[in-house]
């Protein structure tokens, strides 16, 4: 009890220690946030800190106690001039000019030109195809090598950014600098930079015992996390045109909510709200410690949407008596079921179909050893049940799991069924089973078992197949995702023997995401293929992962995906040739309607 009181007092003190108005703090933090990103990712000074996260913490804390613009400009200059001495911050009403002479050594002999190149954003702790480098900066054991350029476009010396970081305050940030032996020009005062690094380390939040405590219980941790994550996404996320809100509004809202959050769990929801506005199905926000409890457990029921209603489609516990397949869910925990789902979906990022699919999976989640209250309408009228959360909670489920189990194999003479989200693809299977079938049903309502599913593709074609989707990795040298070039990735599929002559039917739904959509894109439009179901997730391309202080992670799509004809894939997904949604009668009767339709068409076409 005493420890709880100490923590509470510490938190109350941390909030009361910054007497400035909320509007003043907001202005300070937004200015710092924008400048922080411009300098970290687009200004190549050699004095840059090794750990930018600590600078974000330090700066966030400083911004909370600044009372006017004069102090704000002075503090920003104090921080950034020691890590980026050629950066200028000033009142917009007293404009300054970029002075090329101030970044030019008296004698440029032996100097190289240093600037940033980003192929996507290379982020710490997550190895990926994305890379960020400073050109012409020696590295390695003997500082003798410089990284090779990632692409042709690069900044010229003399290029700079001049922009507002908040209304009435502007900055000038050079994009390129002269460098010699790894040191950029002009140099900051060495002692001043060392002093800043020492102050940054000393400013880390501490618990009641005086130990460094990196937890979102402290406001500077929450604010730093927003600033770090927002800048990465602002400058490298490729789908801002599909976001629900402009990046600047998202920053304003996230900072405002972060200041008022009271716990790591509160802040987890703030990050989720921030990311939900970006509409990216790869955008997952997690807290690893303390472990989130709201998704610990779930009830042994599966829900789906049919005819505009939320319906029980599977009962996974024989002890649940009185609830039947096809029962309509009217409310969850006394809240109208549609409003309840929307209250969950506001924290989810992605397309509408992806969010609905995911919210249905998570609808009954909650802490373990608890129950969920359901009001339903069945064949005998209204009923209410308190259902135990007795199995592990889920945040994703393959769509085929909503349906009655179907085993891989021959469903009818000459009709073969294979679940690509569950069953393994082997060469023997292709040569013996699939090759001899007249019709094959591939179930891709979910995520592929592994990459072996792609080994099927060469056997579905009798001539080389051009890539049906292309991936575009951003080539970034300017901030705010402007003037972006792209490295296009994509190759054709070559035909292999044996050629499978069977009619192909592919089942899909919104749970089919990423790799599933690569497969779907390749087969869509082939003369022997029919896709049946509902649109896929509309999320494809390699992810990137942001690790934040306080043990939060955010994943997001780091590249753009388009269909081969240049048309949009993001959010739209792969559209089936035959759209088929569940019916309440079909669910009541335990029918897998997309599978039944595929069998029916296959029988007709195989005659």
UniProtKB/TrEMBL annotation:
A Pfam family that the UniProt record links to this protein: Peptidase_S41
Database matches in Gene3D superfamilies: 2-enoyl-CoA Hydratase, Chain A, domain 1, 3.30.750.44
Gene Ontology molecular functions: endopeptidase activity; serine-type peptidase activity
Signal keyword on record: yes
GO cellular component: outer membrane-bounded periplasmic space
InterPro entries named in the record: ClpP/crotonase-like_dom_sf, Tail-specific_protease
Residues making up the signal peptide according to the UniProt record: 1-22
SUPFAM superfamilies reported for this sequence: ClpP/crotonase
The keyword Signal is assigned to this record: yes
Keywords: Signal
GO biological process, one term: proteolysis
Tail specific protease domain residues: 475-579
Protein name: Peptidase family S41
């Amino acid at each position: 009890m005493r420890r709880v009181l100490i923590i509470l007092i510490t938190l109350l003190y941390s909030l009361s220690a910054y007497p400035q108005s909320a509007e003043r703090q907001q202005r300070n933090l937004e200015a710092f946030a924008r400048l922080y990103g411009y300098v970290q990712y687009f200004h190549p000074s050699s004095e840059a800190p090794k750990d930018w996260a600590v600078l974000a913490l330090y700066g966030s804390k400083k911004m909370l106690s600044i009372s006017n613009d004069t102090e704000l400009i002075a503090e920003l200059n104090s921080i950034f001039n020691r890590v980026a001495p050629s950066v200028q911050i000033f009142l917009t009403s007293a404009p300054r000019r970029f002075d090329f002479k101030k970044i030019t050594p008296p004698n440029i002999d032996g100097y190289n030109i240093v600037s940033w190149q980003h192929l996507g954003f290379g982020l710490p702790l997550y190895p990926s195809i994305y890379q960020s480098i400073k050109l012409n900066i020696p590295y390695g054991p003997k500082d003798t090598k410089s990284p090779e350029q990632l692409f042709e476009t690069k900044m010229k010396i003399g290029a700079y950014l001049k922009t507002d970081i908040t209304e009435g305050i502007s900055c000038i940030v050079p994009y390129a600098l002269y460098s010699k032996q790894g040191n950029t020009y002009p140099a900051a005062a060495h002692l001043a930079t060392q002093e800043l690094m020492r102050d940054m380390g000393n400013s880390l939040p501490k618990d009641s015992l005086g130990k460094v405590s990196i937890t979102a219980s402290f406001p500077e941790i929450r604010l730093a996390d927003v600033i770090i994550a927002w800048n990465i996404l602002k400058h490298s996320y490729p789908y801002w045109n599909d976001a629900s809100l402009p990046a600047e509004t998202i920053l304003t809202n996230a900072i405002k909510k972060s200041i008022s959050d009271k716990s790591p769990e509160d802040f987890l929801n703030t990050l989720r709200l921030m990311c939900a506005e970006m509409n990216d199905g790869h955008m997952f926000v997690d807290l690893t410690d303390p472990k989130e409890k709201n998704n610990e457990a779930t009830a042994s029921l599966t829900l789906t949407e049919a005819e505009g209603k939320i319906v029980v489609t599977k009962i996974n516990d024989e002890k649940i008596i009185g609830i039947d397949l096809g029962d309509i869910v009217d409310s969850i925990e006394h809240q109208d079921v549609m409003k309840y789902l929307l209250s969950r979906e506001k924290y989810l990022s992605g397309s509408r179909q992806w969010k609905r699919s995911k919210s249905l999976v998570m609808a009954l989640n909650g802490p373990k050893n608890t129950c969920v209250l359901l009001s339903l309408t069945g064949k005998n009228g209204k009923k209410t049940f308190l259902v135990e959360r007795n199995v592990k909670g889920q945040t994703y489920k393959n769509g085929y799991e909503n349906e009655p189990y179907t085993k891989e194999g021959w469903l009818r003479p000459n009709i073969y069924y294979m679940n690509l989200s569950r069953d393994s693809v082997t060469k023997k299977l292709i040569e013996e089973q699939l090759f001899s079938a007249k019709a094959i049903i591939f179930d891709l309502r979910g995520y592929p078992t592994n990459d072996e599913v792609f080994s099927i593709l060469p056997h579905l074609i009798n001539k080389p197949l051009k890539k049906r989707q292309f991936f575009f990795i951003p080539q970034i040298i300017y901030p705010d995702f402007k003037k972006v070039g792209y490295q296009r990735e994509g190759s054709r599929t070559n035909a292999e023997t044996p050629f499978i002559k069977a009619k192909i039917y592919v089942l899909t739904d919104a749970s089919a995401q990423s790799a599933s959509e690569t497969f779907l894109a390749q087969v869509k439009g082939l003369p022997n293929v029919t896709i049946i179901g509902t649109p896929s997730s509309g999320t494809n391309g390699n992810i990137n992962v942001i690790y934040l202080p306080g043990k939060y992670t955010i994943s997001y799509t780091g590249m753009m995906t388009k269909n081969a004809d240049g048309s949009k894939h993001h959010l739209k997904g792969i559209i089936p040739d035959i759209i088929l949604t569940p019916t309440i009668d079909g669910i009541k009767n335990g029918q897998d309607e997309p599978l039944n339709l595929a069998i029916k068409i296959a029988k007709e076409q195989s005659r």
